[in-house]
Amino acid sequence: MGDYKLADAEERFAEIIWDREPLGSPELVKICEKEMNWKKSTTYTVLKKLCDRGIFKNENAVVSAQMSREEFYGAQSRKYVEDVFAGSLPKFLTAFCRGRRLSSKEAEEMQRFIDEYREDR
Questions:
Q1: Which of 55, 62, 78, 91 lies at 20 to 30 Å from 44 by C-alpha?
Q2: Ordered strands of the 56-59 beta sheet
Q3: Do the Cβ atoms of 2 and 75 come closer than 8 Å?
Q4: d(CA 34, CA 28)
Q5: What is the pTM of this model?
Q6: pLDDT digits (tens, 9 = 90+) for 31-67
Q7: Which H or E run contains 102?
Q8: Residue 64 vs residues 17, 69, 106: alpha-carbon distances, Å
Q9: Is residue 57 part of a domain?
Q10: Does residue 55 lie within any of the structural domains?
């Protein structure tokens, strides 16, 4: 599985792209200069790094996502569960819910999820 952990600045940068894609790379440079106080070289260095990781692409000076925000954070969550809870979703949910009660709505949503993704369906 790929590396789905981003440094804080990389995550802010990714959010800029996801919020505005597709966008020209010169426009991205201007946005990052204004919002992140980055130089052109920094923007292109970080963009290349995230393109190499398969998150974005830069073709003909147009930057767009190869992986949606939801796909990225989903993969990041799965990697966390694998690393910390040996891939056990029940162990993760037990730790996550420990010390709190689920609302009826949350329990219903979880049950719908279980029903939808159950292997023996």
A1: 78
A2: 23-24, 62-65, 56-59
A3: yes
A4: 10
A5: 0.73
A6: 999 999 999 999 999 999 999 999 999 999 999 999 9
A7: none
A8: 7, 12, 34
A9: yes
A10: yes
